[in-house]
From TrEMBL:
UniProt region (Disordered), positions on chain: 286-321
Source organism (scientific name): Cicer arietinum (Chickpea)
Signal sequence coordinates: none
Stored InterPro entries: Ribosomal_protein_uL10, Ribosomal_uL10, Ribosomal_uL10-like_insert, Ribosomal_uL10-like_insert_sf, Ribosomal_uL10-like_sf, uL10_eukaryotes
Low complexity bias (residue ranges): 286-297
Protein name: 60S acidic ribosomal protein P0
Record function comment: Ribosomal protein P0 is the functional equivalent of E.coli protein L10.
PANTHER family the UniProt entry points to: 60S ACIDIC RIBOSOMAL PROTEIN P0 (PTHR45699), LARGE RIBOSOMAL SUBUNIT PROTEIN UL10 (PTHR45699:SF3)
Domain Large ribosomal subunit protein uL10-like insertion: 114-183
Keyword check for Endoplasmic reticulum: no
Family: Belongs to the universal ribosomal protein uL10 family.
Amino acid sequence: MAPKPTKAEKKIAYDSKLCQLLEEYSQILVVHADNVGSNQLQSIRSGLRGDSVVLMGKNTMMKRSIRMHAEKTGNNVYLNLIPLLVGNVGLIFTKGDLKEVSEEVAKYKVGAPARVGLVAPIDVVVPPGNTGLDPSQTSFFQVLNIPTKINKGTVEIITPVELIKKGDKVGSSEAALLAKLGIRPFSYGLVVLSVYDNGSVFTPEVLDLTEDALIEKFAIGVSMVTSLSLAISYPTLAAAPHMFVNAYKNVLAVAVATEYSFPEADKVKEFLKDPSKFAVAAVAAPAADSGAAPAAAAKEEEKKDEPAEESDDDMGFSLFD
């Protein structure tokens, strides 16, 4: 029989394993492991086998190994993991899609009874209905102010009752009642607290962002940068098109108000001298959109028979041509 490894040998083996995983994987999920049993953890390991590895250990050992590996490799990005190692946590090293791995981890939750002194992670509501308990058990309900009645020799709860609020500690009476009713109100499993990806650390909520949501947030950011740039007259790529357009409008306004002119300003001045041309342009645009091709063709035929006059065809221009 081989001798059991000493504490020093266990630390060396753990350091070696953690350093190897840090070298091999660039994505890590930091998970909270309170109230997770060994059998449940084994099921999680089996479910993630293939592209992910679950590593548990004492926080001091993990921090020590990470610092040693950072000093050895000169890569200090691993040090971003150290502030995340607080409480009962573990590491899931993965090469898969972070969102898919996070969802797979969430599947392995098991129901748990409400034990005395436990902080309730959710509100616990006792539903109305027949409890199956005999009338001698009414004392539990009276202590907790739960309205009941005797129906066919058993205790029946009349209305739903909020027995425990989220964040409150479970008392002995509440725990005993839930045990008698066979209610396991809580469920526990590994909970993703933080995500490490190639040196960057972010919350798991980021994994829920869709491509459309990212585009929307990016557009909002660009709009804010544009507004700020225009307000302080600071040129940026986002504000440049608006600045050019505004500058063109200013130059055009100066040309219209003075003798100075240029080709685009000449067209605008011509329109301003003869406002009726605005009406001609306005009528021509809806006609083109309505698909009135036959009517337009007929007008062209009539024009051919009329004496040649100054044409307004070249007036259908854009101010930015």
